[in-house]
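TOKENISED FOLD:
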Amino acid sequence: MGGIVVRALSGLLVCLMLFCQSARASDFVFSNAPGPHGVGLRVVQQYDFSRAYGSKTDPVTGQPHAEAGRPVQTLVWYPAVKGGAPVRYGDYVRAAVTEDNFGLSDAEVAKAASTWLEKRWKGLAAAKIQVEMSRPTWAVRDAKPEPGKFPVIIYAPSFGAPAHENLTLCEFLASQGYVVLASSSRGAFGREMTQDLEGVEAQVGDIEFLIAYARSLPHADIEHLGVVGYSWGGMANVLAAAKDSRIDALVSLDGSIRYFPTLAASAKYAVPSRLTAPFLFVGARPSTIDELLASHQDMSESLMNQMKYADLYRITMTPMVHANFNSEYQRFAPDSGWGFSEYSRDETSLAYSWVARYVLRFLDGTLKGDPTGLSFVANKPANNAAPAHMLTVSFRRAQGAPPTIGGFASVLAKQGFAHAVKAYQSLRSVDPGFQLSEGDLRHWGNQLLFADETDKAINVFELATVVYPTSGAAFEALGSAQEKAGDRIAAKASYAKALTLDPTNANVIQRLKILSES
């Protein structure tokens, strides 16, 4: 591979992990002030018993494992009453070493934590590690929650990354009135993530588990739900949204939905008609046309470019490459690292801070109903006082309702069921592939009859006779609904048409006889 693929894989699998050269990490400066709330942090060790994890036998000792499900250690940031001793960065590290092993003793946790940063960021000086481990964050462990309910954000980390990877963004959102949950990125059956559909769907499953867990939190407003993902997590969250219509907002931070279009397309359920949540994609500066040509990627499969039923906001951050969207990288990578080759740490830190602002305003607009939020995102950067040449913005509005029976029903609920034929033809003109089967229409009409919505049922059955004009069963169903509504003349006409299409239909013969005699 060459060009963009090499850069993407480097960012996903290498640059975020180990750096072999000796280097000093400079301080990362987040320029955004905290919001009006304090930030609480809970670490919840729990299992998803609906999924297996690992093998029945320990591959090292050969001893059988105790039965357990998939460990999903969960970090929960939430709006809290201000006050208390802040969490140190080392507290996040100590949580990371227990993410899939809840049975470690305090001594084992301390030992593992003491070498965690050194292993992850080789060449980092011991003195610098000690400084960073003791550096305070905004969060307070188990702080008293603020009263009320707050929208829920699920954060999905990058390929194989810990849950606290973007703790700066997560704490910032909590301070602004959001409950944020995250778990580490791990493969289907072990700690190592795998670069395939099984791997990304393991993370999709973790997102689903965290959504379910959020329902148990008394301060979480699960009716307003967003998912933010970075890199690999920025593909997992899109697939999760394709499976779960409860997700109201999507944010992808230079997500792999951009870099692995073929892999995303292999999830057959991830189709444009199932992706209707407003979508904010914040990307690194684009590759050159030469790099795109050298990569040999088939961009025609780009799911993001096909998402025509969702409002799509695209922001390009000129100073940032893939790794800069990760606050852990900003904090620990050497000044000579890939992410600072063209722009300084100060410039990329400022850009990261602006990314956080745009994410916040997008979520405020989609989950809190703040009209100024989305106008901010779609605005010209200069009108938002953004630094010159830092970012560009484009906006593509959704092309109406998605071509699904649910989307069609939504249109009829607004326009009126009497316009069913016209609305159906309009959807077909947008997407010729959209078609409701005769069975779909008859089942829908029968459900409306059962709900005593007879007039609406008639409209749906009329549509069935237009779409399937040679179906005697469609006209029979229409006649039955008209008869129930007391329109005997219309019912007789529909039954008569049904009989011409199927002269052997005994029920239609009987209904016509009854209507003629009474």
Q: What stands out?
A: The mean pLDDT is 88. Residues 165 and 328 are 6 Å apart (CA to CA). The first strand starts at residue 38 and ends at 44.
